[in-house]
Amino acid sequence: MPLFITKPALQRHHSCIQLIGRLLLIVFSLTVASNVQADWRQIFEDEQYVYFVNDATKVDKPRPRVRVIRSFKQANAQGDLSAKLLYEAECSSNRLRMMSGVLNKGNMADGAVSGMINSQGWMEASTRPVLQILYELLCSSSAADAESQMGKRISPPDINE
User: How many CA atoms lie within 13 A of 20 on its CB side?
Assistant: First the structure.
């Protein structure tokens, strides 16, 4: 028994497919636009890396956390150019830890994901200048201080002092 499809039914099917395609394009465009327009600002630079934070990723509870991008000045042995990291602070003890890290083949955490970075546990903020800057960003002494930190550029400490 042959299957017959009427012209109106075929037109409705075609319209549904076009609508789904348009919706997928809109969702994809919004996703790409939100990633590209993220407000990453540089907070520190050393001989190997440039560090960026996005204040919109800061979360205060249960412990303060923020997303960080570490951009490599030269690709590592595996060809990675950046890493996207999540740092968490324990303000009462002046410590930070990297909760998660993902290596990327592209700049600014773009491109293919090539691996994970294992956490080295809690570290004293004073052991590295970038950790001290992240600690100060996350552990300001009051809510008013936290509000004043958001959106400000934080300069690395002057090594010559």
Answer: 6
pLDDT, tens digit (0-9, with 9 covering 90-100), for 8-56: 766 776 665 665 655 444 444 444 444 444 699 999 999 999 999 999 9
Quote the tokens at residue 86.
């999540």
pTM: 0.65
In this structure, CATH architecture of domain 40-149: Beta Barrel (2.40)
| Per-residue pLDDT tens digits for 72-89 | 999 999 999 999 999 999
Answer whether 49's CB lies under 8 Å from 70's CB. Answer: yes
Domain residue spans in the chain? 40-149
Task: Tell the residue number behind the tokens 């546990």, with chain if given.
Answer: 121
